[in-house]
Amino acid sequence: MVASGKAQPKPSKVTKKNIVRGYLFLAPNLLGFICFTLIPVVAAFALAFTDWNAFGAPHFVGLENFKTMFGDANFKASFWNNMKYTLLYVPGTIILALLFALALNKKIVAKGAFRVIYFLPYITSMVAVSMIWRMLYNGTYGPINAALKSLGFTNVPNWLADPKWAMYAIIIMCIWKNYGYYMVIFLAGLTGVDVTLYEAAQLDGANAWQKFWNVTFPQLSPTTFFVTITCIISSFKVFDAINVMTEGGPGRSTYVLVYTIYTEAFRNYRFGYASSVALVLFSMILLVTLIQWRGQKKWVEYM
User: What's the pTM?
Assistant: First the structure.
């Protein structure tokens, strides 16, 4: 550290006022974050080590909730169902969003209108969408099964009433609802692709697939990384659709982690146990994020 020999100039009154104004503008957002995010997160972390039914004082039990959790059939079912949901929902959503983004990035008629149409399901209420799809999936009167029967299928699935099909039905609906959001992100990423690279690839005789794999996809890597992270985190938070369409059934076929947290906290009044499940869910999301960040560095270096 080199001494300059001169005292640092004191900030002027205008600078001080600007600093104060900046903190005042940040204060409402910071206060909201502290009250509605930071404090509940810290409280949930503390409750994970207690036995509390919302009445009276919490009773400290140490790691007892976690021991109970790993022997709980509902938790095991929700964990594996969540893994199944993530493994199918994430690639399905990303692939569909990318395909539509590539299609809408071309020069087509009414391109703006199509973008709005595909984005509309995302901004529609999940409860409303779930109610509509619940009617569409009706095994007796639903139009989906009616269409399948008209095509010659006789053994049509009973969708939400069948343990083998219920999770797939929810995954299909969630992909349809959310792919428009990620499509818009991919469209934004496609605007940053260097057009001259396509011209060079054209001169080298590259076909459409080679252009995509060697030009488009590498330059979309930051966008793909962001979409993958947000999509994985979103898949761990699925709740509304399951609560409206199946309530975790039939059996435990659509039990997921967030639904388990909701059931244990607000139906069984086991807030300490529910907090321990929430802590495990938080740890899973954090672990996935760290793995993705580390993988992204290697991916960028390889590219």
Answer: 0.85
